[in-house]
Amino acid sequence: MTVAPLLRRFSVAPMMDCTDRHCRFFHRLLSRRMVLYTEMVTTGAVIHGKADRLLAFHEDEHPVAVQLGGSDPQALAQSARRAREFGYDEVNLNVGCPSDRVQSGRFGACLMAEPDLVAQCVEAMRAAVDLPITVKTRIGIDDKDSYEELQGFIARVAAAGCTTFILHARKAWLKGLSPKQNREKPPLRYDVVRRVKADFPELEIIINGGITDLEQAREHLLVLDGVMLGREAYSNPYMLTEVDSSVYGETGTIPSRADIVAKYLPYVRARVEEGCPLGILLKPVLGLYHNRYGARSWRRHLSENMFRPGARPELLLEALDWVESAASSST
Q1: Most Cβ neighbours (<10 Å): which of 109, 120, 185, 310?
Q2: Is the pLDDT of residue 306 over 70?
Q3: pTM listed for this prediction
Q4: Is 165 helix (H, G, I), strand (E, B) or coil?
């Protein structure tokens, strides 16, 4: 397969319990050009766990990046080398997750308080591999949320060789808010991200947070280098079929939902034969009919049956019949 250039104008965010390899394969059926990211993988899991299970991916997922969680420069370097061996196109360092579990491991958003350490991590990974090393971060943490502090963090890490920053346009509260609340309660500050781009025009600045449609994405792309879509890509995946034309300017026929199911079904069959539970494979498609007539029938038929013993991949075709029946009964 010919790997598409790593143009990060549009990407789907790394999301725990969402962007596993099956979700990424499904998303690739919707857009050929967008960049896909793994769930965060810790350095400990890569080095001491089952790397084959954690890092393996289908070649059709390219361009695909691995997101690493860690704060030990040598462990990150070792993990980056493993990622290169598996064929990833980019290594991303998580400096944005605010969960207590991540903080206890001294990585994620708490690293914003240690720009020198983040710089050392970037330097170690750059020395270990010739892949792009990128950083995904917040615009601040707790009371360390002044623009000057963010500016200093960006400058220090950029000096270590990082040229691409993905900025979630919210600060993070490390205590008192859950990860979900940290995605919703701190106010969005798109102006801060745009100011970073103005102050660091030589850097690739990608915005993340609160973006729900491609019209918003296009507006951000007037002044920024890229847009990263989060939960909306998982709950309303069909919108991704317009990325290649709307963001990358490509021409071509947008596949129907039925076309997408037909393309995904052989993959599902193959993974089930390998022993993968059907429910895991069908989770990414639950939102395929989001805001369409028949969406409730689609989601209900799949969710009520995909974890049952003996459930087969043909459940997807049955769900399509339910949608068609619901649509015909409405006319």
Answers
A1: 109
A2: yes
A3: 0.94
A4: strand
